[in-house]
Amino acid sequence: MLDNDKISVQLYTVREALAADLDGTLARLAAMGLRQVEPFGLTDVADALAAALPAHGLTAPSTHARIVGGDVDAVLAAAAKTGTTLVIEPHVDRSRWTTEADVAAIAAELNAAAAKAADAGVTIGYHNHEFELEQKIGGRAALEVLADHLDASVALEVDTYWAVVGGVDVPELLGRLGSRVKAVHLKDGDGTRDTKKQVALGEGVLDIPAILAASSGVELGVIELDDTSGDVFEAVAGGVRYLTAAGTGA
What we know:
The protein is α/β, with parallel strands linked by helices. Helix content is about 45%, strand content about 15%. The chain is globular and about 45 Å long.
């Protein structure tokens, strides 16, 4: 189960509306009952969000920002402006996940960033796509090999939809990764790479109740759609309704 205060939304979901009207978009999300959001590209939007979020009763406890190969100092400065305490690397190119040495190098960058971030009270994390789970190293998913190389202070944000696309049993994966998982991305659809087929939670083929049950210990359940053929705000609102009902009793 997810408590209501753990529900967030990844702002990438409404990126087009956000670019056109930041305040109006945040107001629409707040009107759905959301109180938390997860920004992306934080260094570009921190100043605007620092003013806009409190105006709409919103906070940004987590964010996506480039850590691996990025300017960690700039990211931490942006996080300080928005009061963000969980900074997640959203993507490292699939070409870097083929060997254990590759994965260990990614972990080393995340570990170094985490050591720097600790002084600022910020946790560093990593968010998966499908390829970190499809790619096997020594018979294990590359994402789990990454976890082996990460310092205990580094978190994971498991994108549950892309984990399904990657061919794993998500509740079992969450169980193996344990308390390292601080957040999950929650999305639904037909379980394929066709992002236009993503839909509101509970309207696709994913076993959302089982995923929620396995996610009970996480700090944040983040609604996201990479894309959809329908109205994205209706899909987000449907997700909020689903989690508000399921989060208190599923």
